[in-house]
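Let's practice the habit of predicting before peeking. Look at the sequence and jot down your guess about where helices and strands might fall. Then scroll down.
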Amino acid sequence: MVDSQFAPLSDKIAAAVKQISPSPIRFLVDTHVHGDHTGGNENFAKMGVTIFSRDELRYRLVHPTAVPGAPVQPSAEKRSPSSPIVVRSRFT
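Done guessing? Here is the structure:
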């Protein structure tokens, strides 16, 4: 699945996906940091969904006061279940 939308929509999104496939949602890809794309991450993580993103996006979610455009330092802190795991740190 791509993007989790706003948190209050998580159950409706999961129900809509079940209309297409009875299989559980296994993976979620975050495209960018805006809340209308990542707001439901915590809800989907609780459903057992593995979340993927770029390293820069994960850093911004973990450090919401980070300055946009500032160099991103790979995060050393422990990942919470609703934080994305990194697929790729740089796209070339």
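How did you do? The chain is about 30% helix and 15% strand.
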